[in-house]
């Protein structure tokens, strides 16, 4: 693939919708020596829903996926996570692959002139957010090198339902490889500038989401400071499958966003709910464990209380619990 060969060169960036890359170039955060337009690659904008899987090409537009009838029916949380993100204009431009690759909205990362000390942008320089205004920063998955949140919505829903990212690259002999979305995104640790498992020269070509009963009965809740075009203060993607009695939880899926350095799966909360009765007290008690291990940095301490409430509310809405 010619585009991948060009992408393997140093300081090269791929251009699809451009809604993130061009923005960061204007801010002087991204300074690529070359930009490769991949919008004319054929076959990467397809959306396919079969009996077992949903396949979405990396160049499919956010709006097209959100409005796709079969996606809305089979995976409500995926559709909801997309149409609750950004503005209509951006959703019409942004690609699914680009949406996964969007970078943090941390103001210290996005202003290199005022804040040279950002480990994500300038490794080893420090983290200005630690002692700065950090209301919109992470409480989960943080390190002493970075507390920036992953800003996306769609990836949160993908993580909840065991989606896989398909990548391809010239340096790997054009061979495809598949990466679980939960593994695709990296924790910052001491290398916050390394955000995903993409190797040099690789690009996302698609996403696969296994169809399941929990995906069929799913919901995405996003809590934010204003009603539209705002990033999440906290969000939750949830799915439920009930036993035949209609009262007992057979399986549940939960992931949260807006509070962590990557889309954050709550496997311990899921396990605690399996086999339990679907009622408000049970859901709230389980959701209380959402913030286990959380670390506030000052202004963002409210998220430790907010995140469990968002999870409980999402589950109660989905389960029809008053």
From TrEMBL:
Protein name from the UniProt record: Xanthine dehydrogenase family protein subunit M
Domain (FAD-binding PCMH-type): residue spans on this chain: 1-214
Gene Ontology terms, MF aspect: FAD binding; oxidoreductase activity
Protein origin, superkingdom: Bacteria
Organism: Comamonas piscis
Pfam families xref list: CO_deh_flav_C (PF03450), FAD_binding_5 (PF00941)
Family matches, as PANTHER family: OXIDOREDUCTASE, XANTHINE DEHYDROGENASE SUBUNIT C-RELATED
Stored InterPro entries: CO_DH_flav_C, CO_DH_flav_C_dom_sf, Diverse_Substr_Oxidored, FAD-bd_PCMH, FAD-bd_PCMH-like_sf, FAD-bd_PCMH_sub1, FAD-bd_PCMH_sub2, Mopterin_DH_FAD-bd
Keywords: FAD, Flavoprotein
Signal peptide region: none
């Amino acid at each position: 693939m010619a585009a991948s060969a060009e992408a393997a060169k140093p300081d090269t960036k791929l251009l699809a919708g451009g809604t993130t890359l061009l923005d960061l170039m204007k801010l002087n955060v991204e300074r690529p020596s070359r930009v490769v337009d991949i919008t004319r690659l054929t076959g990467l904008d397809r959306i396919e829903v079969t009996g077992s899987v949903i396949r979405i090409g990396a160049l499919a537009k956010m709006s097209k996926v959100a409005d796709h009838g079969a996606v809305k029916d089979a995976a409500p949380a995926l559709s909801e996570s997309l149409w609750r993100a950004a503005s209509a204009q951006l959703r019409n431009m942004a690609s699914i692959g680009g949406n996964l690759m969007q970078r943090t909205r941390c103001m210290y990362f996005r202003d290199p002139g005022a804040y040279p000390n950002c480990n994500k942008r300038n490794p080893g320089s420090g983290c200005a957010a630690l002692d700065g205004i950090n209301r919109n920063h992470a409480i989960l998955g943080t390190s002493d090198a970075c507390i920036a949140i992953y800003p996306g919505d769609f990836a949160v829903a993908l993580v909840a339902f065991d989606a896989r990212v398909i990548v391809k690259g010239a340096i790997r002999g054009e061979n495809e490889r598949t990466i679980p979305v939960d593994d695709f995104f990296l924790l910052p640790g001491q290398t916050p500038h390394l955000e995903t498992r993409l190797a040099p020269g690789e690009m996302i070509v698609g996403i696969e989401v296994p169809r399941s009963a929990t995906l069929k009965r799913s919901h995405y809740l996003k809590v934010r400071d204003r009603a539209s075009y705002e990033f999440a203060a906290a969000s939750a993607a949830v799915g439920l499958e009930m036993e035949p009695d209609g009262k007992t939880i057979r399986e549940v899926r939960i992931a949260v966003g807006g509070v962590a350095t990557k889309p954050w799966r709550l496997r311990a909360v899921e396990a605690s709910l399996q086999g339990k009765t679907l009622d408000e007290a049970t859901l709230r008690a389980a959701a209380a464990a959402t913030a286990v291990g959380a670390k506030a940095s000052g202004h963002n301490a409210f998220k430790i209380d907010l995140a469990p409430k968002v999870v409980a509310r999402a589950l109660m809405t989905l389960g029809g619990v008053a």
